[in-house]
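Kindly go through the entry underneath: sequence plus fold tokens. Please state briefly how this chain folds according to its tokens.
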Amino acid sequence: MKTYIFSSILFIITFFAQTDIQAQQIDPSKNNYVILTKKVPQLQPIILTAQALKAEEGDDFGDFKVIICGQNIGDITNPEKMKNFIEEAEQAGVEIIACGFSMNKFKVDKTKIPNKVTSVENGILYNLQLQKKGYKSLSI
């Protein structure tokens, strides 16, 4: 009886441990990136970097995400500042993401956020979750 219980517990532990490992694995043939920034003007060099990496890596280039957070988050609602960045990001395969926590804290009017900019509840948490999935991360 003890052997049966011990074997069952060992099987359950092994099953859940393997499931966790598989969930955190990523496609090793793709390079995925996430950058956390506090200033909209930094999008220009970030997008240039994404373009260079895409050209250099070819088919190995995966996702490239930029998370904007901090007290200057309101700049994303300025069409003059964002228009060119959004177009360039789209061409480069860069996803622009706004931090919902920052938008709430600094009272950003969410109706004025461009359609091409997505948002997450907590940008810092999202960044860490992506790192756990194997994304290369940089904060500037």
Remarks:
- Residues 28-139 form a domain with the Hypothetical Protein Ychn; Chain: A, fold (CATH 3.40.1260.10).
- The beta strands are 31-37, 61-68, 94-99, 118-120, 136-139.
- The helical segments are 2-24, 43-57, 79-92, 100-105, 123-132.
- The mean pLDDT is 86.
